[in-house]
């Protein structure tokens, strides 16, 4: 049987990806340019007995998904810039309480209200450093409608596997463009569910590290009674100020991601084998970059593209390796140098890093990148 | 035989953090008796709170307990209730948590009439942070941030809840301990969003600053100002000056949110 093919908007694909992954709860608040995710979920979730709720504000939306996740549901919220700022406190709560949840954040101009309908890539640092305190961060930056679907599925898998919030961050161009999408068959993409406890309710502890760095999570209402708090807690889930426990728990929460970077980080290498100039790009900007690489190759310039799919954790190892091989990096992005700073950090001075920054609400076009390639080759 | 509270308390979690003379423990005992009267199952009951002294209550209780962020109890609880409507969901917290930072979630939970019970322990102050004025601190009162007297008018929590659409609103006091469980039990039984405000005392951060000589004086004040709604009907406006009505203040039958959403699901499946 032929696969189902559709012409879909990015935000619609994110919603469809969530449903494919088994999402049964959406809590949201309207905000441009992410609202279509909520609209699709409001139509589709009740059809499968799932729940959609439009909350009173962004903070409430984040709270509702964490509450629902604790009952065992796979949960999604969607937002954009100012909403991401508002959600940060409770993103931190989900980190410390180790509650799986997925946040689709469509990147628009900022700071503050900024340019609500203009594309941007300026939330990538907010995805890692937005909430206070040390915490794990996973952030995916898809570049096409098809990939937005697939990466949303992967975001759910990572959230469930590592008991942590995961962000999917398309820029506004990817979220609002319409493209052909081929729907994967059920079972074609891996779908991961959180590990349920194997011990009896009497023996259960919500952060029991005898099961490893990601302890099984029981559901409220399933016969397991436990305590969840945003305070530093011990393995039993109750608040503690015991220094050794707090240190161990904090380190474990971050280690869940840090020790599994190779499982989480995905990227694409294009024409990099003999490249002298490597473009590092993500989201819609990476599509302009690919075009520019092709043009440069036609003109005999050895250019290549390292496309970031997983922005956090950052592909440090790969960028560091490239830095030893290429003469220069070019980092086009719709912000004033967020990824550029990371690339410089990883390159450790072994290769020059040239940024192309746009924050005027216009996309970075291939010509702009090609010009820079010629300049630095 | 004495009532066995231990049945509902988590082993090893007491003593609690509350100061001597604080009314929160009286409220917790009232909540336990209400739960016992109704026969609520521990496995099927979530107790959700925000931040503050009163919000530490769930940690002591042997249920599915969720100690959230400041002001967010109603929003987290809404997620729990929506995802699992068959669970009993009880919210607890203080006046600052519920009516200041959590005010938006509070009024919208009222408006939705989602079937949960919210117990607000109103001690007129932010106790945990050391006694700053809250939206429920009386005008003129002293707090650590109103040493010249509070210029702000106070919320009437019950009126706020009624105005926002809660369908069951009651008020009790920490002095009237034996009434608390009855009010809470009736609130939990009510189908819809129910609010029980318990006027409480904070001797440590409110009493001392406002010339209360003892906890007993604070408790006596609660006794003196409380007038049962029935008794108030026969009193003149003059007699009611400075008094606060207690008992069930408002009750209305109205479709509740999760039942209404079940109808949405039915319509969507057609």
TrEMBL record, chain A:
Alphabetized CDD domains for the sequence: TPP_PYR_PFOR_IOR-alpha_like
Gene3D superfamilies: 3.40.50.920, 3.40.50.970
Keywords tagged on the record: Oxidoreductase
InterPro entries: 2-oxoacid_oxidoreductase, PFOR_II, Pyrv_Fd/Flavodoxin_OxRdtase_N, THDP-binding, Transketo_C/PFOR_II
Keyword hit for Oxidoreductase: yes
Ranges where the Pyruvate:ferredoxin oxidoreductase core domain occurs: 275-368
Pyruvate flavodoxin/ferredoxin oxidoreductase pyrimidine binding domain ranges (all copies): 17-248
SUPFAM superfamilies, per database record: Thiamin diphosphate-binding fold (THDP-binding) (SSF52518), TK C-terminal domain-like (SSF52922)
UniProt signal peptide: none
Pfam families to which the protein is assigned, alphabetical: PFOR_II, POR_N
NCBIfam families, per database record: PRK08659.1
Protein name: 2-oxoacid:acceptor oxidoreductase subunit alpha
Organism of origin: Geomonas anaerohicana
Automatic annotation (TrEMBL), chain B:
Single GO molecular function: oxidoreductase activity, acting on the aldehyde or oxo group of donors, iron-sulfur protein as acceptor
Classification via InterPro entries: 2-oxoacid:Fd_oxidoreductase, THDP-binding, TPP_enzyme_TPP-bd
Gene3D superfamilies: 3.40.50.970
Pfam families in the record: TPP_enzyme_C (PF02775)
Chain ranges of the Thiamine pyrophosphate enzyme TPP-binding domain: 51-198
Biological process terms in GO annotation: cellular respiration; small molecule metabolic process
Keywords: Oxidoreductase
Protein name (database record): 2-oxoacid:ferredoxin oxidoreductase subunit beta
Chain's gene name: korB
């Amino acid at each position: 049987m032929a696969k189902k093919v559709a012409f879909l908007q990015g935000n619609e694909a994110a919603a469809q990806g969530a449903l494919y992954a088994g999402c049964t709860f959406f809590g949201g608040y309207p905000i441009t340019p992410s609202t279509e995710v909520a609209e699709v979920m409001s139509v589709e979730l009740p059809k499968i007995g799932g729940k959609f709720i439009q909350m009173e504000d962004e903070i409430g939306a984040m709270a509702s998904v964490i509450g629902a996740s604790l009952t065992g549901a796979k949960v999604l919220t969607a937002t954009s810039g100012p909403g991401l700022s508002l959600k940060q406190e409770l993103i931190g709560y989900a980190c410390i309480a180790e509650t799986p949840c997925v946040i689709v954040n469509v990147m628009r101009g900022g700071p503050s209200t900024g340019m609500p309908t203009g594309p941007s890539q300026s939330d990538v640092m907010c995805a890692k450093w937005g909430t206070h305190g040390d915490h794990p961060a996973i952030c995916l930056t898809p570049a096409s409608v098809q990939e937005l679907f697939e990466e949303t599925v992967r975001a759910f898998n990572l959230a469930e596997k590592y008991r942590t919030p995961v962000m999917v961050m398309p820029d506004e161009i990817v979220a609002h463009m319409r493209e052909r999408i081929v729907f994967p068959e059920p079972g074609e993409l891996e779908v991961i569910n959180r590990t349920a406890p194997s011990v009896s309710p009497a023996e259960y502890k919500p952060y029991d590290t005898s099961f490893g760095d990601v302890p099984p999570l029981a559901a409220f209402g399933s016969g397991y009674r436990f305590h969840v708090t945003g305070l530093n807690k011990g393995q039993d889930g109750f608040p503690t100020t015991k220094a050794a426990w707090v240190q161990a728990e904090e380190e474990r929460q971050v280690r869940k991601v840090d020790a599994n970077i190779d499982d989480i980080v995905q990227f694409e290498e294009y024409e990099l084998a003999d490249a002298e100039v490597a473009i590092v790009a993500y989201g819609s900007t990476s599509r302009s970059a690919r075009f520019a690489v092709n043009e440069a190759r036609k003109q005999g310039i050895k250019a290549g593209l390292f496309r970031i799919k997983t922005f956090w954790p950052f592909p440090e190892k790969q960028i560091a390796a490239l830095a030893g091989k290429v003469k220069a990096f070019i980092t086009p992005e719709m912000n004033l140098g967020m990824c550029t700073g990371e690339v410089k950090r990883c390159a450790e001075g072994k290769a020059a890093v040239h940024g192309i920054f746009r924050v005027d609400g216009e996309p970075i076009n291939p010509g702009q990148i090609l010009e820079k390639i010629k300049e630095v080759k | 035989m004495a009532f066995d509270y231990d049945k509902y308390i988590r082993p090893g979690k007491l003593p609690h953090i509350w100061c001597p003379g604080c009314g929160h423990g009286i409220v917790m005992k009232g909540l336990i008796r209400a739960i016992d009267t109704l026969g609520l199952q521990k496995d099927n009951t979530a107790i959700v709170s925000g931040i503050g002294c009163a919000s530490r209550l769930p940690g002591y209780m042997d249920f599915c307990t969720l100690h959230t962020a400041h002001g967010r109890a109603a929003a987290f609880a809404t997620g729990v209730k929506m995802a699992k409507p068959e669970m009993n969901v009880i919210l607890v917290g203080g006046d600052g948590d519920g009516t200041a930072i959590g005010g938006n979630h509070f009024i919208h939970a009222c408006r939705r009439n989602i079937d949960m019970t919210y117990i607000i322990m109103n001690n007129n102050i932010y106790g945990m942070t050391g006694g700053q004025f809250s939206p429920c601190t009386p005008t003129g009162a002293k707090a650590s941030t109103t040493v010249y007297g509070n210029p702000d008018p106070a919320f009437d929590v019950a009126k706020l809840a009624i105005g926002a659409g809660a369908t069951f609103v009651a008020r009790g006091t920490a002095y009237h301990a034996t009434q608390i469980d009855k009010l809470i039990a009736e609130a939990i039984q009510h189908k819809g969003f129910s609010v029980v405000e318990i006027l409480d005392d904070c001797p440590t951060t409110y009493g001392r600053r406002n010339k209360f000589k003892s906890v007993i004086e604070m408790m006596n004040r609660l006794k003196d100002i409380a007038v049962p709604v029935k008794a108030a009907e026969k009193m003149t406006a003059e007699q009611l000056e400075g008094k606060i009505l207690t008992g069930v203040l408002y009750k209305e039958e109205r479709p509740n949110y999760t039942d209404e959403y079940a109808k949405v699901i039915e319509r969507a499946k057609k």
